[in-house]
Amino acid sequence: MPVELYYWPMIPGRGEFVRLVLEVADVDYRDIARLPVEEGGGIDAMMTVIKSGIDGKIPFAPPFLVDGDRLVSQTAECCIYVAERNGLAPREEALRLFARSLALTTADFVAEIHDVHHPVGTGLYYEEQKPEAKRRAEGFRRERLPKFLNWYERVLTANPKGPDWLVGDRLSYVDLGLFHSIEGLGYAFPKRMASASDSWPKVMALVARLREDHRLRDYLSSDRRMAFNEDGIFRYYPELDAEN
Amino acid sequence: MPVELYYWPMIPGRGEFVRLVLEVADVDYRDIARLPVEEGGGIDAMMTVIKSGIDGKIPFAPPFLVDGDRLVSQTAECCIYVAERNGLAPREEALRLFARSLALTTADFVAEIHDVHHPVGTGLYYEEQKPEAKRRAEGFRRERLPKFLNWYERVLTANPKGPDWLVGDRLSYVDLGLFHSIEGLGYAFPKRMASASDSWPKVMALVARLREDHRLRDYLSSDRRMAFNEDGIFRYYPELDAEN
């Protein structure tokens, strides 16, 4: 039976991190909320699981996966689940554990990126927190963004197998997480990211390579890949962007 | 060789979530940054690992664990690592996976609790973001805190094994995570939490039971258990608290 992915159908959002792993691992999956109601899809089908759970297992929020009697929620855990069962995670235990730590750090990074446009609260619109967002964006561009990207760059540099991948000597799900984060940052902060190749050459080389990688190319040009927009995590608000 | 826990020595912070699991699982561990320099401890010993990593595995931030050649970072992943190897996680796979999802949701909750006093940025002092914190605190008390606690209450209610524990029929690490979160909320938001037993009776019953549980009692009364303070995650700022 195909794995079921549940996520909001109108944004790439956090669901896209899971979708990328499913696509690259070539897993048979159903993207429930994006399917027509006649095929058991739609937002209502998602809300039913959020309300009732699966055998007492209730997700806090999308994205989540349902695989038989298993319910896996939280973006990082969904990625880990799919990747470790489908050849997109390191096999050696110490590397597997480090990859998990890395996936959770990427989730933290994504949460901070989101909170740039929602510093006061997720319950309010961006328009209700613009001055605060502007202030937070400055600290994000100057301190938090470099702190995270410096760290990814250091991890690539320190990889005993070379700087091509974050962990081990082949593509794993954590590279896909970094890839999508950088794509999103390029969309949301084009001025800030214009000099990224100078600051974080190994990170940006990895992303450029993945953009052309045969394992991603088909998916990225398909209509399953959604465009970024101003309802998701990565939003382009020119007033929050600057060269530094 | 004992497992090494690395975390800031002056606050309970996120490290306390890991420490609780280590203590209750009765794991032999060394709390490195709190040990004297002569015993290989101190903050410098921690900074060395943050700077150099372990065989190319570099943590983004404390807390992290070092166990031989393994480096595990991120609070939730540290708790998962210790619990799954030491009898504090469910054995059945579907429950094990749901527990992981739960642990990551608790990490998100803790991040939101932290951001109440730091909405604009972690690089600024609380005193530099007091008006924004006050605004965020209102949304937190009225929407986010109930959203999370309602969910824990629903998870307890839906547990096919009864409402004593979040997952399965015995204590697991996710109960400890909820326990410490509630203890911290009681410290930071005493007015808001005064009516918690009416709103979330099963959650508060679990916490009350754990407070007296023989597996925790010794630790909680030891000098290894640190008091909450205004440098950590859970801070008592009266101006951020209210009954609703």
TrEMBL record, chains A, B:
Residues 1-90 form the GST N-terminal domain. Residues 92-240 form the GST C-terminal domain. One of its GO terms (molecular function) is glutathione transferase activity. Pfam families: GST_C_3. The keyword Secreted does not apply. Keywords: Transferase. GO terms for biological process: glutathione metabolic process. PANTHER family: GLUTATHIONE S-TRANSFERASE. This is Glutathione S-transferase. It comes from Fulvimarina manganoxydans. The lineage of its organism: Bacteria, Pseudomonadati, Pseudomonadota, Alphaproteobacteria, Hyphomicrobiales.
